[in-house]
Write a structure and sequence with these properties.
42% helix; 7 helices; single chain; 206 residues; 18% strand; five-stranded parallel β-sheet; alpha/beta
Length: 206
């Protein structure tokens, strides 16, 4: 895709752990870019909970040297930071998201979370949605098995909630628990399941 579109420069955003892992997908990408003779800049120190200052710092770097593409490699925090950075740059830069964790879904949403003065703030705009997402189970091989299992059960729980709401003609999980509400950010899926049952779906289904 990058070769076909004649992309000459890349900015890679990643967390510190991805950058340090010698056999990570990030290292494989760097090798590929070197073979394709692409100019690559790096932002490897994105924290677990990016704040406004982190985004501002990267935006300044973009203003000095606008990349042809931004590639975010990592978990939800990396995705959120990269999405916000492209958005606030005010430039038409295409973003490619490559998740290395399961569960956040940030690589396909128009939603991001930034921290300011230790308070999390949601950003919601269609322009926050990445232009492309590359999903490959091989990228998850380095994850602890417990984390993979947790993400799988999280998806299963969401599916059960949606089935309950559908049976009760109460919409879907996004209607009852909108992701634009900070009340439900990082909430346990089992808690959502209990809340959905207590909202009246249980009585209607039974």
């Amino acid at each position: 895709m990058l070769i076909r579109e004649n992309v000459k420069s890349i900015l890679i955003c990643a967390g510190g752990s991805s950058a340090r892992a010698p056999e990570s997908i990030l290292q494989k990408l760097l090798l590929a870019f070197a073979n394709w003779e692409m100019e690559v800049d790096y932002c490897y120190d994105i924290p677990a909970e990016p704040d406004v200052d982190d985004v501002r710092r990267i935006v300044k770097a973009i203003e000095k040297n606008t990349p042809g593409r931004v590639i975010a490699v990592g978990g939800g925090s990396v995705m959120d930071c990269a999405k916000a950075m492209v958005y606030f740059s005010g430039q038409q830069i295409r973003l490619i998201a490559i998740p290395t964790t399961s569960g956040s879904g940030s690589e396909v949403t128009d939603f991001a979370i930034l921290t300011h003065n230790k308070v999390k703030h949601p950003l919601v705009d269609a322009r926050l949605r990445p232009d492309a997402a590359i999903l490959d189970s091989d990228f998850l091989q380095e994850l602890p098995k417990g984390l993979i299992a947790e993400a799988g059960f999280d998806v299963l729980t969401h599916a059960v909630i949606d089935a309950m709401l559908g049976a009760a003609a109460m919409g879907d999980i996004g209607k009852l628990f909108p992701d634009s509400s900070m009340e439900f950010k990082d909430i346990c899926s089992l808690t959502l399941l209990q809340m959905a049952w207590e909202s009246g779906t249980g009585a209607i289904i039974l």
